[in-house]
Amino acid sequence: MAAAGFVIGRDGLGALIEALRGRGFTVIGPTVRSQAIVYEELQSVADLPAGLTDTQDGGSYRLSEREDGALFAFNAGPNSWKSHLFPPTLTLWKGRRGEDGGLELEEQAPPPRYAFIGVRSCDLHAIAIQDRVFIGDRYVDHDYEARRRDAFIVVVNCGKAGGTCFCVSMGTGPKADSGFDLALTELFEDGEHRFLVEVGSPRGQEVLDELPHRPAGAADEEAAQAVIEQTAASMGRTLDTDDIKGLLYANLEHPRWDEVSERCLTCGNCTMVCPTCFCSTVEDVTDLAGGEAERTRLWDSCFTLDHSYIHGGNVRETGRSRYRQWMTHKLASWIDQFGSSGCVGCGRCITWCPVAIDITEEAAAIRATDLRDLATANGGPDADD
User: How far apart are CA 168 and CA 175, in angstroms?
Assistant: First the structure.
């Protein structure tokens, strides 16, 4: 659907939340919990983090107040929409032994119909990546499909870049181009708080028609474009993606893996906050009498020893091998599997790493001392005759 420019005010945003709730959606958006901005259920516009922003760097996250009442002046927090589409804990089935000795399964409640407000472009790309993983192949995750199928997505284009953001390098932001129902750009001028709205689907237009709005003028469009350009020009990090798959494949024995493993705690924080990581495990539990049983799916991480366990032992026993697996999969072998990088440049893995390991720094260090270049310089097999 062609883009259409409109403008709503703060009252229009409140009406949007009410309209979505009135349609039976569970509205999820940014709100403050435990001194962080996270994505949880919203009842009204009052639940949004008005006048708050965040400061992020390697291993560091802080909230602070702004002088204005901006509602979306922050960057990616510790959770993502993955928490709702691919929940950390999911009951696959639960049952008990019937009187005849057979298994009687409890009926599972259907997942809610979600409306997501405040989706950033990097996270929209992450959702598209998980779509390919869970529903874009012959093996479909039916729970994910049910949660994703009818989700209403309201994007908010980024008005500021975070200290660990590098979405421009990954081609995933800061402005969303497609895949949404409505897209907002928050604007402040002369004390006026408004949102430029782009319509991305027929049902997005249907909802917008119920809100107080007006057509966007040239000044509105120019102001929104200026916000996007300023954000794109102020990224906190960059990542050179030129042949990054070949770079990592050719440097599996690079000494940098030893250096990073000396710092890495193998805690798995990077995989937990990543909006695309999808590793999981399954646990079966029974009561002591053997009358009830339950199977649960849980998030897992390639940093845990058990994740790589096969008959006879663990494939990746060292922190070096586990970090190499994570980074090489994210930036290289993911491309072979799913046709794109597994990284969207949100910077969460840098912010929430306790020892501030930076994926962009690690990739740059390997590129700076590419073993192929060193072999050529030393008269190796690739050197000129």
Answer: 10
Which residue intervals of the chain are DSSP H helices?
Answer: 10-22, 82-85, 121-134, 142-149, 167-170, 202-208, 218-232, 244-249, 256-261, 269-273, 319-328, 334-338, 348-351, 359-368, 371-377
Residue 44 main-chain phi, psi, to 5 deg: -160, 175
Average pLDDT of span 218-227:
95
List the structure tokens of 365. Answer: 């260090």
Q: 240, 367 in Cβ contact below 8 A?
A: yes
Q: Contact, 187 vs 195, CB < 8 A?
A: yes
How many Cα atoms occupy the beta-carbon half-sphere of 135 within 13 Å? 14
Alpha-carbon gap, residue 10 to 46, rounded angstroms:
11
Mark 127-148 as b/e (b = at least 16 C-beta within 10 Å): bbbbeebbeeeeeebebbeebb
Q: State the amino acid at position 249 in one-letter form.
A: Y
Global pTM reads 0.92
Phi, psi for 310 (deg, rounded to 5): -130, 175
Tens-place pLDDT, residues 17-37: 999 999 999 999 999 999 999
Q: Which residue type, as a one-letter code, is found at position 58?
A: G
Q: Are 205 and 10 in contact (CB under 8 A)?
A: no
Distance (Å, whole) CA 340 – CA 349 = 19
Amino acid at 154: V
